[in-house]
What we know:
Oligomer: single chain
Amino acid sequence: LSPEHAPDFTFIGIACHLKDYKMAFNLNSSLGLSLKRVSDFTSPDHTDRLYSFFQCYNQEERKNFMLISNHHPDGKLLPKLKNFDFFLVSDELMATSRLETLLRKIRKTEKVLLAAKIEREKLKVYDRITSDLELHLLENKE
């Protein structure tokens, strides 16, 4: 059996010098989200490393937003993207205009140094991490 097509997600890398809870608070304020901490995300390489995970569901747009830390004392969640401290992930492929608006707002958020879209091609583990994210969302449904 061949697996179904991997779902489309939008990944935004964020560089900053904030703790995870403060980054979530700042994004909630600037983007109008309601990110809440849920159980930590397990690394897709199936090590015991856990990464802080915040999630919110936008009822109107029927999509999830997730904020995932890229830091663990033993290594990065996505080592090839080590310059990013967090990833803001949406479980939809955003239109270019909407993505640019979102990026502008994130860049204006207090203490954010850099925000950039991460192209699917740069994520060698795209299929694996999106599958893991979907499972994590299902496990944390209220």
